[in-house]
Specification:
The complex is a heterodimer. By secondary structure, chain A is mainly α. Chain A is built from nine helices and two strands; from the N terminus they run ααααααααββα. In chain A, strands 1-2 form a two-stranded antiparallel ribbon. In chain A, strand 1 and strand 2 form a beta hairpin. Chain B has two domains: 41 residues; 148 residues, no CATH class. In chain B, 41% of the residues lie in helices and 25% in strands. Chain B is built from four helices and five strands, in the order H-H-E-E-E-E-E-H-H. In chain B, strand 3 and strand 4 form a beta hairpin. The longest helix of chain B is centred in the first third of the chain and has 40 residues. Classes of the chains: A mainly alpha, B alpha+beta. The interface between A and B is medium-sized, with 22 and 19 residues.
Chain lengths: 205, 193
């Protein structure tokens, strides 16, 4: 049961970009299309799960004074691995994501989970935590990228969905559009969770 | 003291293991990465200059040593062969010539049987937009098609661009350089493919 809970919390309770408000740099930069968002999210998920498992396995061996250094080495190794593999087997995606792949190393979500969770919990729970948070991150990026792609380019996953007559609102695929759509999403999610919260309180009383 | 020793040992071990793992991954992905790069960067140019082949010119590429650079490292000419039924009938590779704004890189396709140019494609240049940069347009590149390789090309042979003499000359020089390489290494190029 505990493992399931660690997995599902990543989809709502600690949904990375919107609830933790962590890792915003890639969130803003790569979500120009749904595909880029999903690619970045999956790459991050892979690194997150691997590093969580390894950190959790080694948590009793790594002396606490050098734990951050050890975490960084582990995370950086997985990131380089992802970079090489992506270059070899998915070159166009690698070109689209560019500098943001190496930057996964400094994505606070990953180091944050290693420090806050994997360093204190068992392997199964850590893997579930990484997978849940990673997939939550992926879905968030995918949705955000999808919204920006549809409005800003008239396409979704490269397919024209709004018809040929649609004049793309290119503001949305530029940097300011990223901030605006992130803000709207944040507001929406806060509103929904406030409503849920209120209902729970009403039921309790 | 014991603490420090433990720290050093653990950190060293972690670094060593990750170093080894990365080296292994690098080894495995080296080939596919080179292929993916060429496929995405060079294939459009190769497709533009060769036609009627049934192989994958990127996969069948051959490297021909053509000397060494200033540091003594060997320089390879990467030749993309076009084959039909396993027989090479045309090849494509790059030549370079200096234009107005810098080097012009040109992918040149050669028909081996007819000894002529099957097509050219500009792969890299820094010419003036609107003037020299027109060398990438088809009305310029198409004028190289079918030119014989019996002698060096001059700008009279092709549809040179008015107002962009140096860019036109640079492109012709690049094609001539590729022609020279073909002449010099013809046996190797044909055999290798």
């Amino acid at each position: 049961m505990a493992v399931v809970k660690e997995f599902t919390k990543g989809f709502w309770d600690v949904l990375p970009p919107f609830r933790l408000v962590l890792g915003l740099c890639p969130v803003l930069a790569v979500t120009t299309s749904a595909e880029n968002g999903a690619g970045m999210g999956l790459a991050t998920t892979f690194v997150l799960v691997c590093s969580n498992v390894l950190v959790s396995l080694l948590r009793k061996i790594i002396p606490s004074k050098v734990r951050i250094a050890a975490y960084i080495v582990i995370i950086a190794s997985f990131v380089v691995m992802v970079e090489l593999l992506m270059q070899a087997y998915s070159y166009p995606l690698y070109q689209a994501l560019g500098i943001f792949i190496p930057l996964i190393v400094v994505n606070c979500i990953i180091l944050g989970r290693a420090e806050a969770f994997a360093g204190k919990n068992g392997v199964a729970a850590s893997a579930a935590d990484g997978l849940g948070i990673g997939l939550g991150f992926t879905i968030s990026l995918f949705v955000l990228g999808g919204i920006r792609e549809i409005i800003g380019n008239g396409t979704f996953l490269g397919l024209h969905v709004l018809g040929t007559g649609y004049e793309p609102f290119t503001f949305m695929v530029r940097a300011p559009g990223a901030f605006v759509s992130l803000g709207v999403m944040l507001a929406l999610i806060n509103w929904i969770s406030a409503r849920l919260e209120a209902r729970k309180r009403r039921n309790a009383s | 003291m014991k603490d420090i020793l433990k720290m050093v040992v653990v950190l060293t071990l972690i670094c060593a293991v990750s170093g080894l793992t990365l080296a292994a991954v690098y080894d495995v992905t080296k080939g596919p990465i080179e292929y993916a790069r060429l496929k995405n960067v060079k294939e459009p140019a190769v497709k533009a200059v060769l036609s009627g082949y049934d192989n994958d010119p990127i996969k069948d590429r051959v490297q021909i040593p053509i000397g060494t650079d200033k540091k003594g490292k060997p320089v390879n000419l990467v030749v993309f062969p076009a084959k039909k039924g396993g027989k090479t009938f045309a090849v494509a590779f790059e030549g370079a010539g200096s234009g107005y704004g810098g080097n012009i890189g040109v992918m040149v396709g050669f028909n081996l049987a007819d000894n002529n140019i099957s097509g050219i494609s500009i792969v890299g240049h820094s010419e003036t937009p609107g003037l020299g940069a027109r060398i990438t347009e088809t009305q310029f590149t198409d004028s190289f098609k079918g030119k014989s390789l019996a002698k060096e090309l001059t700008t009279d042979d092709i549809n040179a661009l008015s107002g962009a003499t140096l860019s036109s000359k640079g492109s012709v020089a690049a094609v001539n350089q590729a022609r020279g390489l073909l002449e010099k290494y013809r046996d190797k190029i044909v055999q290798g493919g």
